[in-house]
Amino acid sequence: MTRLSTFLIVLIICGECFTVLAQTDSASIAKPDSTSATTVNPSVNIPEASGENNYQTKGVSVSPAHFHLTQKLGEAKTYKISVHNDTKIAKQFKVNIYDFNMNGKGKTSFMAPGNGKYSLAKWINISPTFIELKPGEKKEVKFTVSVPNNEAGEKSAWSVIMLEQESPRKTLEPPSKGDGTVALGVIPTYAFGVFVYQNPPNVATNKVEIINFSFAEKDTAQMITIEAKNIGDGIAFCTSYIDLTNLKTGQQERLTVKTFTIVPELIRDFIFVLPKNLKKGNYLAIGVLDYENSEEIQAAKLNFEIK
């Protein structure tokens, strides 16, 4: 009899969106002695940085959800992540760190620490790497970032610290014990991803350009897209919004504000779906990128018609 157990991990990042990572512990028909392995989804979207800097799920909260560091060369600093178990059940978490690279459109590839092009993981030391919280208990995970005093420390770097729930492995009993029977179970667990970004003082963090600003119709939806590119060498933290003006009535409306992180060499698309109750007529759209900690903004304009 071959037994197969599949575990799902839900990764909650920055309090705004999630992706699913799969962990498989299997004894395959060909190799009954194969060991368990953890795979990180190689193609997911980096979530936007939300206005909140903490998040909560299943009665467990983690704070902060992201760090924006500006350490100098040769500087070492220690930071704290707070984890609170507000449930009636004890919780256990492994604490790991991963690097991640992004392609031109923001797709993410997670990898082992030290393997990323802009790896921060190789400069980070975490303690502890395993925590157990009793019901109602709160604990801290500390990590120290030691930026080298050489050329490597002059560039931006980033990684993600993952607090991955440890769940007991349950014994699965198949409905029948005949040959070839497969017992399949799904145990939902979750993980928190805390993003850590480091910008040394020498990099430019306000070099994001709007390279395309367009209106499109798809099925019954109408949308405006801002396509932005980070041409600088620093990580930019931006706010994006669009102001609409009806050219006949003069009525103005601001579309939902989006906050986001855009790393060097990255191109990102920001799609704003227009309200369904928008009146027919000609409109002027002004798209704006507003940098964190900067007086400069990027803007573009577009004329379009709602028919």
Summed up, what is this model?
This protein folds into two domains: 2-198, Immunoglobulin-like (Sandwich), CATH 2.60.40; 208-306, Intracellular proteinase inhibitor BsuPI (Immunoglobulin-like, Sandwich), CATH 2.60.40.2360. It is 0% helix and 58% strand. It contains no helices and 23 strands.
Walkthrough of the structure:
The protein has 307 residues and is mainly β. It folds into two domains: 2-198, Sandwich (Immunoglobulin-like); 208-306, Intracellular proteinase inhibitor BsuPI (Immunoglobulin-like). Helix content is 0%, strand content 58%. It is built from no helices and 23 strands. The strands form four sheets. Strands 1, 2, 3, 4, 7, 9, 10, 12, 14 and 15 form a ten-stranded mixed β-sheet that branches. It has a five-stranded antiparallel β-sheet with strand order 5-6-8-13-11, with no helix packed on it. Strands 18, 19, 20, 22 and 23 form a five-stranded antiparallel β-sheet that branches. It is globular, with a radius of gyration of 23 Å. The model is unreliable at 1-51 (pLDDT under 50).
